[in-house]
Amino acid sequence: MPSSNAYHPARPPDSPIDDSDSDLEIDIEELDPQTTPSAHQGRTYEPEQRAPRIALRNLRMGGLRRGAKRNGYGELGRSQDGNEEDAEALLRDGDTNEPRNSEGSAAGEDDAPLLSGSRQGSGGKRRRRSFASDSLRNLSLRLPSFMSGTTAADTGNDDEDHVKEEDDPSASRQVAVGSLQATRYPPNSVSNAKYTAWNFLPITLYNEFSFFFNMYFLLVALSQAIPALRIGYLTTYVAPLAFVLLITLGKEAYDDIDRRRRDNEANSEEYAVLRFDEPGRNFGSSRPNKKLKSSTQARKGSKRHLSSRDRLSDIQEEEEQVEGHGTQKSPSSYVTQISKKSRDLKVGDVLKLTKGQRVPADVVILKCLSNDPPVNRISEEVEPEVEALLLDHVDEVGQGSSTDSKKTVKGDQGALENGSTGETFIRTDQLDGETDWKLRLASPLSQSIATEELVCLRVTGGKPDRKVNEFAGTLELLPSRQEAADSTAHTENDDDHIKAAPLSIDNTAWANTVIASHATTLAVIIYTGPQTRSALSTSPSRSKTGLLEYEINSLTKILCFLTLAISIVLVALEGFSNTKGNVWYVKIMRFLVLFSTIVPISLRVNLDLGKSVYSWFIQRDPGMPGAVVRTSTIPEDLGRIEYLLSDKTGTLTQNEMEMKKIHVGTVSYANEAMDEVSAYIKQGFHVPPSADSLVNSILLTPSSSYTSAANIGATRTRREIGSRVRDVVLALALCHNVTPTTEEEDGKMINSYQASSPDEIAIVKWTESVGLRLSYRDRKGMALEAPDGRTVVKVRILDIFPFTSEGKRMGVVVQFYEKLHQGVPSLENGEVWFYQKGADTVMGSVVAANDWLDEETANMAREGLRTLVVGRKRLSTKEYQEFTAKYQDASLAINGREAGMQAIVSQYLEHNLELLGVTGVEDKLQKDVKPSLELLRNAGIKIWMLTGDKVETARCVAVSSKLVARGQYIHTVAKMRRKDVAQETIDFLRSKPDSCLLIDGESLNMLLTHFGTEFISVAVLLPAVVACRCSPTQKADVAKLIKEYTKKRVCCIGDGGNDVSMIQAADVGVGIVGKEGRQASLAADFSIEQFHHLTKLLVWHGRNSYKRSAKLAQFVIHRGLIIAVCQTMYSIALDFEPEGLYKDWLLVGYATVYTAAPVLSLVLDKDVDENLASLYPELYKELTSGRSLSYRTFFVWVFVSIYQGCLIQGLSQVLTEVNGPRMVAVSYTVLVLNELLMVAIEITTWHWMMVLSIVGTFLMYIGSIPFLGAYFDLKFLLSIGFLWRVVAIGAISLIPTYAGKLIQRTMKPPSYRKVQGI
């Protein structure tokens, strides 16, 4: 097979490639017929496709190599400079940015055939295959091509000048680890902004002019450019419109700049990134030729004898002399640590992540390096041959080795020394809402190589998609960095160089997840920014418009029609053919311009200013610290909410579990009674101190019968209870998947735990609190300590049966040590017990017959506790051996493997268990969640809980939070796949409208797909709906469906990245600032810190905002309509001529200086105080009907405006003159005073600002009269005649209006007056 010359440097003449012997090939099976497959951490990966044949002259080394395993040959391939420890130290030391010289020594050029063609950047850190296993798998391959790639190519990390091809999001991608990518990918920046600099004006102007009255005023303003239609100054009509647009655009710009500022905070978060520099690029030339006998220098941590090292050095020296040039291969890179901001991260960057860090992009985990000290108390007594194996880094098989194939060999010395197994835990509640931690694994291929060699890896992944629970990819190890960076390097002709391993969801961590383990995690970025799973699951930001805006838009259409009607009627009364000076349609147009005040342009200004005031109130409310208004255009919608869609994790709950209750059959313990449990444990696990070391080394087992002096006089019943308590606590302390860890906080070492389930951590913490602490755990065993620090229980783990969502239980088979310093006991020398815990639904049939389990689990479930039933069973040696044999056979079956294995477990273990007890774990609720939900329900809001968590968890929280009332029927729908069942479910819910629906994501998808409208029509009538296992997209779809079907206002509240889509789809989105991130709060319209702040936001601020804006809108309409009626009366008196009554400043001043402040002061009005609003949430319920601003109230105000306008203008003309400055002075003065007094009549609760605005405006009007000589007769204003006319006309205008209001209030008092007792 030809060599791939594009990537292979020239060889010296005496290189083995040019040696004729290198063409001689031999079948390896003739030399080494035995094969032993190797295991790596219990997982397998795909081997390279073919392995090289071996030159004849190299075969003389075979015997030495196979024998070397017993003689310490594993040291041959190791670096002899201690560089690996330096690299690992770098990964644990974030304070240094100095480059580390990480030269690794390949084991001589002649070792290359043993390495299957892959370059060994850090010596023997990678495992070598046996000749036989390569042969059996791949037949034979010629030598020359595997010798290629000795020198790492200089790809140049800093070379940004070469042309990159654009990323195609629909295609899969190849990512070279730690190198510059050939394809340009999007930047890793988060953006919740709605606009860019380019589209801000087009989008905002389009949104503004999509409203009818803005377009109407634009046309009116443009009409003034036509001389025939001009009434007054052009600025009289253009300036108000420009002012309105300026205010609105300014608010939108301010809101968006604020979003960008907060996005910038998230994008500026610093992350540690590993930089891989080319060898010799910054540090001079590569390592010089190796001196003879150099390997006699002792390697740090080496346990090999010097003589064996000398022998191996001689072998290597001899090989190098045969090769000609004995230079060792330098490492593929030098590693330095740099800091990058989140937005500067790129695809291919290798992140160094530690506990508590948010993952900034979608990554594939390469290595997990444990930070824990190498404590090994359990497995230190392993068999000698296993320990010898663990000390060796190669898994080449000796002639007589039989155990090698069953044991795991860790390839990374640094990882081995630190106990790392390539595992880390992540928290995904910000992504999918699930509370359980997820176990993530580094691929064995990347975990086993040195950090310097990570640049030889290439990741192949699929196109970006939104499936957070799926991923399929490949990890490839190539001979050199250059080949890894070249996407064309992987061809059929050089498969012999490449090792490949599959990648799955278990090897990934998506953006917005959080590292939960103490281990240092190295991960390569594969998707950034908008291509991450969380971003693809998030709908783009949209501009939101309040319901009040649409209602006012409808009312302005009516006003516009009224304007057109009046204009046509006035021209018609004169006669279309009798028009003087202008044709009839020009007169109609002039009338339309004159009556344009009917559609008040100042309405938008007043409403926008009102919204700013409401936002100010919300953000400065001392009862809601930290509240932020991000979308200030929709505060009125807070008062119209009818559906609340809430997340669970972090929103209703704190995601903190606490063990609340334990029942042992006859006695239940909770709260203070836990002290009694502690006393029993202290007695049951107390070994009297003795001078005899044998006695002190004795460990306790379930059959131990130690009795403390304090328990001797106890009654038989008490002793029995003590025994049961001891047994159940021991079971809980052993039956789990929790690992104890130690971390440093404020200079103190603190013990903590990590596990996939917070429930298990809560239980193990509880066993520690009562006196039995899990002190150590690995895959082979556990140790438990008493409060005095003495190890009292030590077990060997024989089998673990992990929890699954189908099985709903987990079990463990353990063997108890009887002495502290005992080696691994044989099955005959220690008690073997099977412990199991699980949901009551599955454990009821597993445990022995009893009469209390169902009752107690039901009692705990009613309290909203998550119940677990605990049982145990002792196994004889024969039983366990028989089970193991059968279970092993079942695990090898090709068909029906899972079912067969479960059948064996059920047959031998899961029957007739001794029932030990029932535990109740509480998912701590957020502060005041129960009263908040009750108050919101009383306010007429239907509450749905949408979560990504499990069905059982969602059910418990729904009960504990009182979302579901005590005794209310919960109809559960799960795993529904048939349409007929879906139809039956809908029919059942229709017949039982008072039940709560609990549905999972799969069933919800079925119903929404095939019965969307029918399902929503039934579901919206239910008092509560709980949907679990929901994807972010499903949450958003539910919100949209409710909006579209009911046409009601929907509010969504959440705290995680998985809630962003739902929040943005809602009419009102509320985000809670979460512990792990602010994605939801950044994307939301309103941000709060606690769920219970929502009640105040809706019931107090929302109600006030809506009622104030409704009153404000009606007043502004009244203000514009009354002046239009005056204009109509004046035109009629002038023989239907379109002449302006109030021109220029009088027209502008009326809408601004003389009435604006008093009308705007209505935003300070309130009908009830805050306590009454919370005490009577039914007041909020009234608002949902929209009666505060309806067609009825609108036409009432139209009638009032017509009445007052006709009287004011008519009486002014009758009592003074039809046309002249005296009439204008009287009517204008009455008009201003009428508006000020109408505001005073409508105020419910006075505020000092209201008094100031009304009095101040009146004084301002009086003070400005001397400057209005162009419009008024100033001499007439000083006469008594002017005064009595103003008083008389004003009284006739106001008194009937006020009297009608008093009569209505007496006959049909509003609700707020009822609760006030007025």
UniProtKB/TrEMBL annotation:
The keyword Transmembrane helix applies. Residues 89-101 have a biased composition (Basic and acidic residues). Keywords: ATP-binding, Lipid transport, Magnesium, Membrane, Metal-binding, Nucleotide-binding, Translocase, Transmembrane, Transmembrane helix, Transport. Its EC number is 7.6.2.1. Residues 1-131, 147-173, 279-339, 397-420 are annotated as: Disordered. Residues 16-32 have a biased composition (Acidic residues). Residues 182-234 form the P-type ATPase N-terminal domain. One of its GO terms (biological process) is phospholipid translocation. Mg(2+) binds at D647, T649, D1055, D1059. It is a multi-pass membrane protein. Residues 1082-1309 form the P-type ATPase C-terminal domain. Its main location: membrane. Its cofactor is Mg(2+). NCBIfam families: ATPase-Plipid, ATPase_P-type. Belongs to the cation transport ATPase (P-type) (TC 3.A.3) family. Type IV subfamily. This is Phospholipid-transporting ATPase.
